[in-house]
Amino acid sequence: MNIARDCALALFASLALLVSSGSGRADDPATPRGNTGQNSIIHMDGLSLWLKSRFSESELRALQQGALTLERHYCGCYDKPRKHFPYSFVLLKTPKGDLVARPERKEGSLSFTPLAVRTGDQYCELESEESCYGAFLDPCDFTDFRYGPSLIAYFPSCMSETAEPAED
C-alpha cells in the first residue's frame, strides 16, 4: 500500500467519529437522518490523490504523528455572529496547506470531493494555486462566496434578518 493511501486511511478513525457524531440537523446535508451506522465504505481517493500531489513519498514518511488532521465544519443559517448558507465540509490540515473537501454520501458509502486549497486565509483552485478565490477569515465565508449563489434558491430566507431557529 502506498504512503499517501496509508496517511489517508490513518485519518479514517477520526473521520468515522466526525461522520457518526452528526446531529442530523436539517442544514447539515452530510449527516443523514435515521441510522448513521449504515456507512460501511469510505472512499479516500479524493484525499489520498491530493496528498500524493502535495507531498513526495519521502515527505509523507517523514510526517510526524498529528501532522495531518481532519477538521469538520458545518455552516448554517443560524451561525453567530454571521449567518451562512448551509454547507458541510472538512479541512484536511497539513504542513503544506489545507484541502477543503465536501463529504458526499452515495448508495451507502462516503466519498470526498476536493473543492479548494487553503493556505493561511487564502483559498485557491485545486489545479492552480495561482488562481485564487480570495482571502476568507472564516471557512464558511468561503463556501458562501463559492456556493451561495446556487444555495440561495434553496434557502431564500437563510440570510434574512428575520430568520429564527426552529423550536425543538
Summarize the structure.
The chain has helices at residues 3-10, 12-20, 45-54, 57-62, 139-151; strands at residues 41-42, 69-75, 87-94, 97-106, 109-119, 122-124, 132-135.
Number of beta strands: 7
- Domain tally: 1
Low-confidence stretches: 3-39
**If you average the pLDDT, what whole number results?**
77
Distance between the termini: 47 Å
Query: What's the main sheet like?
Result: 7 strands, mixed
Percent helix, as a range, is 25-40%
In terms of DSSP E residues, the strand content is 25-35%
Count, helices: 5
Sum up the overall morphology in one term. globular
The secondary structure category is alpha+beta
SSE string, helices as H and strands as E: HHEHHEEEEEEH
Radius of gyration: 17 Å
Task: Provide the fold topology.
Layout: H1 3-10, H2 12-20, E1 41-42, H3 45-54, H4 57-62, E2 69-75, E3 87-94, E4 97-106, E5 109-119, E6 122-124, E7 132-135, H5 139-151
Parallel strand pairs: 1-5
Antiparallel strand pairs: 2-3, 3-4, 4-5, 5-6, 6-7
Summarize the structure in words.
The protein contains five helices and seven strands. It is an alpha+beta fold. It has one domain (3-32, 40-151). A hairpin with a 2-residue loop joins β3 (87-94) and β4 (97-106). α1 packs across α3. The protein starts with a helix and ends in a 17-residue tail after the last helix. The model is unreliable at 3-39 (pLDDT under 50).
